[in-house]
Amino acid sequence: HSPKLPPMRLSLTVPVLAHSRRTWFLTAGAEKGAALMNSLSGANNPEYPASFANGTDEISWLTTAGTLQAAIECID
User: Fold this and answer.
1) Which of 2, 3, 15, 72 has the lowest CB atom count within 10 Å?
2) How many domains does the chain have?
3) Is residue 4 part of a domain?
């Protein structure tokens, strides 16, 4: 059980993310915008484990419009 909602979630370690062939990330909500931008803006940032995803075949981000808008606002 996770310490905060949702009560069930799956977390992977950095070595698993770094060696995955296919990685999908699901993000929802404006509060995740900064995390999305920071995960994409630099490789291997320990503060953002998602930045270690180096899928050889596919990396996909599935996100909401609110998350994407908040990420874009981080650039401005």
Assistant:
1) 3
2) 1
3) no
In our burial notation (b when 16+ CB lie closer than 10 A, e otherwise), range 53-65 reads beeeeebebebee
**Residue whose token pair is 């990685």:** 23
- Rounded alpha-carbon distances, angstroms, from residue 70 to 5, 27, 31, 44, 62: 21, 12, 8, 22, 15
Tell me, what amino acid is at 38?
N
Write out pLDDT tens, residues 23-43.
999 999 999 999 999 999 888
Is position 7 within any domain? no
Q: What is the pTM of this model?
A: 0.75
Give the structural domain span for 30.
14-75
